[in-house]
Amino acid sequence: MRGAVLFNGNAETVDALVQTAAPLLLSSRHEDPEVARSRRVVLVTAAWGDGEHDEGHVKRSLNGIGLPSHYEDGYDTNLVNLSLLHEVRGLARTAPRLLAAWHEERRIAEMARAFYLEHNAHLIQLFRRTLAVAKREDPTITVARLAGDQGHYGHGGKLLRYTLSRELRHALDTLEANDDHLVSLLDQIEQRTFDAVGLHYDPAWRAAQQRLERRILSANSIVLFGGHLDLLLDALRFFRLRDALAEALRRGTQLVAMSAGAMVLCERVIIYDDFATKRRDFQLYDRGLWSATSSCSPTAPSGSRPTTPTTCRTSRAASATTPASASTSARSCCSSSGRTGPPASAPTTA
Predict the structure, then answer these.
(1) Which residues contact 251 (CB under 8 A, 6 or more apart)?
(2) Residue 294 covered by a domain
(3) Residue 346 belongs to some domain of the structure
């Protein structure tokens, strides 16, 4: 794979992101000499919702590092917006039943997530109680030690430690099983919804997908911005753009991904709402676009080497002390420090 990915967890400003990514954006690994010469950048701003095309400040930052705009008939052909939500909105006119199916799929998926959280609530409560009892016996105990194969050795009563270790491991195994169940259920909800309306054979959908694929495959670099995670991920999955992004990487396109834009490139997306009015735990939100086998981090300090996309799935027990940090490694890959809340408003058939 010729391409590369630069992950950034949450750059404070667009200028900071562009400056960090400048060495990548100004270079090329692309196999097509024409694309390499163009240094064309495609901007993915669907996570901005109704402000999808308010990208003027981004283009000024790109101009500032030496990536010029080229206008033809009033449109910039070198710094191009993918216009992902614009294509979704277009179906409201050409294929309203497809857009209605998309809204229904999003509604049912959100209900499935609510059930998932209810299932987990009891397990997390039990998890905390088990750990509290263990800490009364040994204040130095950690989740990783207690849940490990040797968790029943150490200070305190060995029989009690053995029992607590087994209970904690059972809670963790059940939490991970719930994750797998949610992933499978979301897959089925998506497949059944879109199969029922013949989504992938609808001429309007196919035309829109082909336009999106052409923009992706013509890019020397692609920048995926943060914002409303649900809008970005749902729209990318709706148009099945994972394969186009993978092919772009194979050809040598370079991806710069920040915040929600980085999260969608993981295998599984783990979120945390630190704006919630009540205490919340890390939770599996959805499937990302990639499935691989090694770990990754979307936070790349300036000067760090880009990587190829990899998985963000980790064990809940890894280096953890409480359920809220039981996905510590996953948080460094995929968590959101911003509001998650209910799904963002999406294009309607109105």
Answers:
(1) 2, 3, 30, 31, 32, 35, 217
(2) yes
(3) no
User: Do 313 and 209 share a structural domain?
Assistant: yes
How many domains in the chain? 2
**To 10 degrees, what angle do helices 96-137 and 158-196 make?**
180
Q: Do the domain assignments include residue 33?
A: yes
Structure token pair of residue 76: 């910039």
Q: In angstroms, rounded to a whole number, what is the distance separating the alpha carbons of residues 348 and 350?
A: 5
Residues 25 and 58 occupy one common structural domain: yes
Residues 6+ apart with CB under 8 A from 123: 171, 174, 175, 178
Whether residue 224 is found in the same domain as residue 262: yes
Same domain, residue pair 91 and 71: yes
Domain that holds residue 164: 107-193
Say whether both 129 and 237 belong to one domain.
no
Which of these three, 136, 170, 193, is where a domain ends?
193
What pLDDT does 25 receive?
96
Global pTM?
0.81
CA gyration radius, the chain: 22
Domain holding 330: CATH number? 3.40.50
Q: How far apart are alpha carbons 44 and 339 in whole angstroms?
A: 20
Q: Given the DSSP bridges, would you call strands 79-81 and 221-224 parallel, antiparallel or unpaired?
A: unpaired
The structure tokens listed for 178 are: 């719930």
Is 318 found in the same domain as 252? yes
Per-residue pLDDT reduced to its tens digit, 182-212: 999 999 999 999 999 999 999 999 999 999 9
The two three-digit tokens of residue 157, written as one number = 């009563």
Burial 248-275 (b: 16+ CB within 10 A, else e): bbebbbbbbbbbbbbbbbbbbbbbbbee
- pLDDT by residue (tens digit) across 116-140? 999 999 899 999 999 999 899 889 8
